[in-house]
Design goal:
The chain is of the alpha/beta class and 302 residues long. 33% of the residues lie in helices and 27% in strands.
Length: 302
């Protein structure tokens, strides 16, 4: 569905995408994750024909996003980061008027709009003004609008940012349902749980490059293991803890006053240190967030 090779994007002298390679397969949910400024959104904009690549090869549906932009746009749906709904129109009107941009005749536009509202559980709000909708409803309406042309590829740029857990989980359920219907999905997100829950494969980007790619579960095992112990070290020296782990395969990371120990199942870290009477610790399964922080660092990006 999407193929990129040695893809670069410059804004003036600033290179924001630095020679990436990727392939997105039909019917999968493919995720882009990375800190602010990693190049995720710029890559998405090149895929959706919003901005041209500076150099490299990019094909969408095996078409050139520059020469065949109109054909590509007719086959994709886009849920942008920004809320671009028309405040002056009612919910249903936001969809039917948008359908006109694709040349969909009025009766079909109405039928598809009602179908999309039902799918996103918004049919009761069809005649409400957009300004009266909650944040979660507005995000669902953006998804409904992106489905109006029955796209083969749906691009979702941070679709659940700022939503409460109930709204987020409803959108997750609808994304899964779309994937089960054969829609190919490309997702950017800052929520590692979201990427781990929804994506068949992801790329982790930083400074315009792809650091790694693959199924989330495989990346977790590859980079950090299966289990994690977090220990606050205000009252105990890290060296005292690590002396107990001789013969056990593990990785460690220190941040502020916390020691992170990453290890595979079978290396019973807690049994080895239980007599140290450590009072402040967390023992949990490793997650994609651990991988993300290991590869991109824990420092805040402004």
């Amino acid at each position: 569905m999407i193929s990129a090779h040695d893809l670069h994007k410059f804004y003036g002298e600033l290179e924001v995408v630095r020679g990436i390679d990727l392939d997105v397969h039909r019917g999968e949910c493919f995720g882009f994750v990375g800190p602010n400024g990693a190049g995720k959104t710029t890559t998405i904009r090149m895929i959706q024909c919003f901005t041209p690549a500076t150099s490299g090869q990019l094909r969408v549906f095996n078409m050139d996003p520059i020469a065949e932009a109109r054909k590509i746009k007719a086959l994709i749906g886009v849920v942008p980061q920004d809320d671009l709904l028309d405040e002056e129109l009612r919910v249903l009107e936001n969809l039917t008027i948008y359908a006109g941009y694709f040349g969909i005749e009025k009766k079909l536009a109405y039928d598809r709009s009602i179908e999309a509202l039902k799918f996103l559980q918004l049919e009761q709000k069809a005649h409400e003004k957009v300004q009266h909708l909650s944040g979660g409803m507005r995000r669902r309406l953006l998804i409904a609008r992106a489905l109006i042309n029955q796209p083969r590829l749906l691009i979702l740029d941070e679709p659940t940012t700022g939503l409460d857990p109930q709204a987020r989980h409803l959108i997750w359920a609808k994304i899964r349902e779309l994937r089960s219907q054969g829609v190919t999905l490309v997702l950017t997100t800052h929520y590692m749980e979201e990427a781990q829950q929804l994506c068949d494969r992801i790329v982790i980007m930083d400074n315009g490059k792809i650091l790694t790619s693959g199924p989330p579960a495989e990346l977790v095992v590859k980079y950090v293991g299966e289990e994690v112990v977090e220990i606050h070290t205000d009252k105990i020296k890290p060296e005292t803890i690590l002396e107990r782990l001789s013969g056990c395969e593990y990785q460690t990371e220190r941040y502020d006053n916390t020691l992170f120990i990453f290890f595979q199942k079978g290396c019973d870290v807690m049994a080895r240190i239980v007599d140290l009477n450590i009072s402040e610790y967390i023992h949990r399964m490793a997650t994609l967030e651990d991988v993300f922080l290991k590869l991109t660092g824990r420092e805040i990006r402004e």
